[in-house]
Amino acid sequence: MDLWPNSAPLATRLRNTLVQYHSIGDNEWRVAKKTKDATVWRKPSEEFSGYLYKAQGVVEDVTNRIVDHIRPGPYRLDWDSLMTTMDIVEAFDENCCVMRYTTAGQLWNIIAPREFVDFSYTTSYEDGILTCGISLDCGEVRPNFVRGFNHPCGWFCVPLKDYPSHSLLTGYIQTELRGMLPQSAVDTAMSSTLANFYSDLKKALKT
Known about the structure:
By secondary structure, this protein is an alpha+beta fold. The chain is built from 4 helices and 10 strands. It has helices at residues 7-22, 63-70, 76-79, 183-206, and strands at residues 30-34, 39-44, 51-59, 83-93, 96-103, 114-125, 128-135, 146-147, 149-159, 167-176. Strands 1, 2, 3, 4, 5, 6, 7, 8, 9 and 10 form a 10-stranded mixed sheet that branches. A hairpin with a 6-residue loop joins strand 2 (39-44) and strand 3 (51-59).
């Protein structure tokens, strides 16, 4: 049996870290990719030797529905093309859990399938919602997967003031894929994955 961390202090630390990322000035970010749905920036991470990515775009829906599609639950697996399995292995309350999930191979399988065990926390933020997570080094790794690690990451979803039926979705992601990978392959995969996340999410919300 895995010993999970005390959820309350971890949730508080995680929220505070994401709010700190959200206050980083525009001049510290460098554009990594732009699509019609989203812009992706990056800056060196303070957690590991890779990058902290920021993604932002307007999504034509209300905050609650958007976050329900992102957070651990019944919707995410249906539309996220990168995610192949997801199990909630421990629920502390309705907004706080530990989940184990796997992702598909990327870049013609240069990046092999990954497995993650993440603590997830969803809470209110200003007029909207923050859903955030961090990986835990727990449990045995499944055969044929490499265990990845998500340093503090999350999604802020707030309604647009003049168009409350539209939301501004801003994500901060810093995934350590681990394994023997060229950094250029990781950077290409991360930027594309985040841009595709927005287009896939928008399609899912329309159905």
